Fold:
Amino acid sequence: MKAAVLKGIKELGLVNVPMPVPSPQEVLIKVRSCGICGTDQHIYHGHPGSAAVNPPIILGHELAGEVVEVGEGIRKLKTGDRISILIFTARPVNFAVATGQFVRKPSGCGCH
Structure:
């Protein structure tokens, strides 16, 4: 899949990245829209104290989309459901792999 990846200060590029696979307690969301928050802008410009991130990283945690794959442990969501997510966290989010309460990037760094 294609993703806008922050490679460094003021350095953003469109990159092909592997499609994430949801665990049994996650769903995969096809992102239809993603907001850019103030923290994302500060990170992009390299402002000190904005957020601790280590590029390369995919920014964005205010999103809406469609559920395209459901982990076997998920009961309240199904393929085709429309969903929006707003995450308040100090940890970075790399992919839209989510349950109703939890978003994580494939490497295991999560945020509640």
